Amino acid sequence: MRRIELIGVEGLPEVRPRDDLGALIGARAGVQAGDVLVVAQKVVSKSEGRMVDLATVHAGDEAVRLAPRLIARPDPRVVQVVLDESVRVLRSERVLITETRQGYVCANAGVDHSNTGGRDVVTLLPLDPDASARLIRDRLREITGVDVAVIVSDTFGRPWRLGIVNVALGVAGMPAVIDLRGTPDDDGEVLHATVLAVADDIASSAGLVMEKTSRTPAVIVRGLALEGGGSGRELIRPAVEDLFR
């Protein structure tokens, strides 16, 4: 019988800029070889100093124009931060959907006002989530002597379904996708379109334990047998196939 375990890493302190996140997790996580560690983007961004105090932000004309058109009626300064983190605005009626510098298409460029440690502070996505995942993985190997895979995850909305789910932004030490095209199914028919977003599957399962209302920003996923490497960028749909671009 195949099974996996989801083990929350609890007891982490409030993460601050320049904190050694790999060491904080390594001191509290009993990782084993072959584990996948899923780490919430929020604590990664905090440790990397990807935070903005809104007191330092001046909202430009475009941000002031857009803010009243959005359902949440955000502070125009938050809208300005979103615009600063974006390379393209794809929708600005009711919700603000943009393409981020990292290539993601998502709401508000991943700018987040929750659990930031300050009332007028927002967090931004890591500049390079794959590099963030590699750094945590290397630090854990150095501290524990154990080789694990690491996923940096964040919650994204979905245009065709209600609710948010965890997805993989950065990936290190495991494949991000498993391409089954060209292989036969159980009936011997060749698969033509089946590409499994395995890193997203793992990230979403970890979200069951990684509760936003409790300090569990990292989850060990145990029992998978994954070989090879990959990058979170492999999960970004090319612009020519993207219905939003």
Write down the secondary-structure element order: EHEHEHHEEEEHEEEEHE
Main sheet record: 5 strands, mixed
Per CATH, the class of the largest domain reads Alpha Beta
Summed up, the domain count is 2
Word description of this protein:
There is one protein chain. The longest helix is centred in the middle third of the chain and has 16 residues, at 129-144. The protein has helices at 21-26, 41-47, 61-66, 76-84, 129-144, 198-206; strands at 5-9, 36-40, 51-53, 86-91, 97-100, 105-107, 121-123, 149-158, 161-172, 178-179, 195-196, 218-222. Helices cover 22% and strands 24% of the residues. It has two domains: 5-48 and 148-236, CofE-like (60s Ribosomal Protein L30, Chain: A), CATH 3.30.1330; 52-122, CofE-like domain (CofE-like fold). With 245 residues, it is an alpha+beta fold. The strands form four sheets. The chain has a five-stranded mixed sheet. Strands 4-5-6 form a three-stranded antiparallel sheet, with helices on one face. It is built from six helices and twelve strands. The mean pLDDT is 89.
